[in-house]
């Protein structure tokens, strides 16, 4: 008898790395993606919705429902200054087919997350690959909802204070620090986090990147097109290829092969610092004497991660 796949909701801000991570999860035999909830992040939420529909068009998966979520941060901020992934948050790629937005579900993202956990208590995994505004809002509307989640996986934050958007903050947490704070303080289900440092340290080489994009297929060509702008910028800056959301996907899909080390710790988010606003703070030495709230992935097998990307690329020919 076939084993039932785990129900998965992907909460996304529809960026370039979100696209590849989504393709990885859609190929999974372990998870069944039952919905996408969109959140303001790499672009405004209306554009994020369009981006997610474009990603699902490339994957021929428009049958999976898509829901719009928070358009503002918890404190009401709308605009995010980050042009790395393009003005539209998806590489400003002109060739991607314009999606039919009329298929967007009418129910709000927060409502659907709460409703589905009531319909399937203990069965749903929530994967967060954008700012945590939808998650924090769900926790405010229904503080018990996370007790009904099977587990939660987050790409965001940093555990050694190394920033990628400010001197000390990671993009997803910095985009809504108060939401990240609420999420870490109030989640009541097993929660695993992949932070920025482990992504930066384990990215494939540029030669490996070009190998990935040498395959034909609709998804591969789509990724190649949307990555053109950020890849050109990274090469110009002398940076490595640094996927982010894909690391979380690989850790979820093949934990025993990809994850080499984790730490179970208490972590929170700095909300007061002039230079450290939005930085994740980890209590490594148990100074605060608080119960651990997070499992942080601190070491990844680089080669197995690349193999996961390669398998996703190869599955699309
Ligand atoms: Ca993202």
TrEMBL record:
- Keyword DNA repair listed? The answer is no
Which keywords belong to this entry?
Hydrolase
Q: Where is the Inosine/uridine-preferring nucleoside hydrolase domain?
A: 8-306
Matching entries from Pfam families are given as: IU_nuc_hydro
- Keyword check for Ribosomal protein, yes or no: no
| A GO molecular-function annotation | hydrolase activity, hydrolyzing N-glycosyl compounds
Which domain of life does this protein belong to? Eukaryota
Q: Which family does it belong to?
A: Belongs to the IUNH family.
Protein known as: Pyrimidine-specific ribonucleoside hydrolase RihB
Provide the organism lineage as a comma list. Answer: Eukaryota, Metazoa, Spiralia, Lophotrochozoa, Mollusca
């Amino acid at each position: 008898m076939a084993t039932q796949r785990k129900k998965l909701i992907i909460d996304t801000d529809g960026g370039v790395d979100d696209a590849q991570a989504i393709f990885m999860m859609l190929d999974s035999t372990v998870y069944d993606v039952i919905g996408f909830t969109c959140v303001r992040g790499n672009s405004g939420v209306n554009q994020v919705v369009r981006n997610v529909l474009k990603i699902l068009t490339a994957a021929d998966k428009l049958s999976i429902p898509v829901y719009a979520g928070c358009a503002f941060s918890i404190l009401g901020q709308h605009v995010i200054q980050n042009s790395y992934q393009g003005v539209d948050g998806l590489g400003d790629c002109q060739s991607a087919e314009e999606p039919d937005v009329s298929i967007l579900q009418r129910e709000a993202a927060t409502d659907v997350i709460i409703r589905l956990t009531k319909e399937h208590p203990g069965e749903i995994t929530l994967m967060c690959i954008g700012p945590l505004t939808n998650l924090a809002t769900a926790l405010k509307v229904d503080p018990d909802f996370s007790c009904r989640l099977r587990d939660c996986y987050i790409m965001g934050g940093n555990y050694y204070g190394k920033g990628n958007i400010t001197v000390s903050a990671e993009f997803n947490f910095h985009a809504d620090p108060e939401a990240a704070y609420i999420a870490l303080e109030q989640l009541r289900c097993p929660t695993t986090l992949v932070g920025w440092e482990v992504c930066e340290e384990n990215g494939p080489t540029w030669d490996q990147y070009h190998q990935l994009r040498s395959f034909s297929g609709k998804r591969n060509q789509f990724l190649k097109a949307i990555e053109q702008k950020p890849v050109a910028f990274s090469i110009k800056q002398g940076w490595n290829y640094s996927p982010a959301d894909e690391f979380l996907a690989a850790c979820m899909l093949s934990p025993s092969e990809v994850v080499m080390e984790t730490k179970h710790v208490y972590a929170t988010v700095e909300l007061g610092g002039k230079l450290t606003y939005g930085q994740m703070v980890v209590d490594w030495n148990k100074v605060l004497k608080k119960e651990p709230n997070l499992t942080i992935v601190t070491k990844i097998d680089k080669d197995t991660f690349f193999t996961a990307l390669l398998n996703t690329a190869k599955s699309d020919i």
